[in-house]
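Take a minute with the sequence and fold tokens given here and flag any structure token that looks odd. Thanks in advance.
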Amino acid sequence: MGEQNIVIAGAGIGGLTAALSLHAKGIEATVIESARTIAPLGVGINVQSEAVAVLTELGLGDRLAATGVATAEYIYCDRHGNRILTESRGRAAGNAAPQYSIHRGELQLLLLDAVRERLGADAVRTGIQLTDLRQDGQSVRITTLDRNSGGHETEMADLLIGADGLHSAVRARLHPDRMRLHWSGLRMWRGMAEADSFLTGQSMVIVNGGPTRLVAYPISSRTAPGRSLVNWVALVTVSEPGWLDDDAGFNRAASADDALPHVADFALGWLDVPGLVAASTDILEYPMVDRDPLPWWGRGRVTLLGDAAHPMYPVGALGGTQAILDASVLADELAVGDDPADALMRYENRRREPTSTIVLANRQYDLQERTGADAVRIIDDYQKTIATASRP
């Protein structure tokens, strides 16, 4: 497989981890990315212990520790700060690897730097948008638009990995009838601001405030003592679950004034939620969406990975983690050295069922969590399901 020409569409967390995981097995790949520039965009993300173990094996443990926060506990409470449940996380829960909360853009750039160091400066080609693909039994013909020059190019690849996110061009060509977004009926406001550290300084708080729920956690260790860069997301129920043809009308820049009315009565005591929101800039607003699990991911020499394959609600903080686990399993199977199409099918067989389970479990957990009834049982049942599905 080392001589194969493998193209990965998408330089997000999953695509870059796939390139690093393949390289570690002696398999080279090229990453194409439609964005002209890869910038540290986004807000916070959680990398669960299983995925941190993968990244640590790739030699990135120290880099993660230098920028992320090792999350030690989840605190479930109501909007007055009354605790419902405390759950240990990462090493505090007995895992071999920590769990990290980190800025998504920082994680992406960390991975990008590692890819360019190990695979070469040209291993990631930016401004290259996939527009079509065709395959025969031996290769994949990829057509791209160079967004820098405006020209179209065609190249042949032995394998194509679609890691191009929620609006995947590869998925759209494999599954044109399965691109509708399933909307939870929630709109999310997300932002971050520096604030006084709260609780242990390694705590994530999950607040059920009725029609508004809130998640907040520190995402950077690069702050002054006693201070944290805190990521927050307010999840507001505005509709019954339904379908969207696209989410273009929902994704937009927002302001603190948009989100503040939904958290004005939150009084946790140890975290000033209205103050945190008011201090935030670059707030984003978008719907909480996923897609129905696919009956199959790929065919022949083309497959999907990460959000392109299994976009999921962020209620379990599992999207990035599952993309990293996808990448690790993909590299394991391609390293066997037999027919690459068979290797892609084995990869799909190992990953499609557990990720589908998580997509559906996240939907169910979201619906149950809205009621606020029997929260301890709901959380316990959900975590048991996720623990089984998340085993590498």
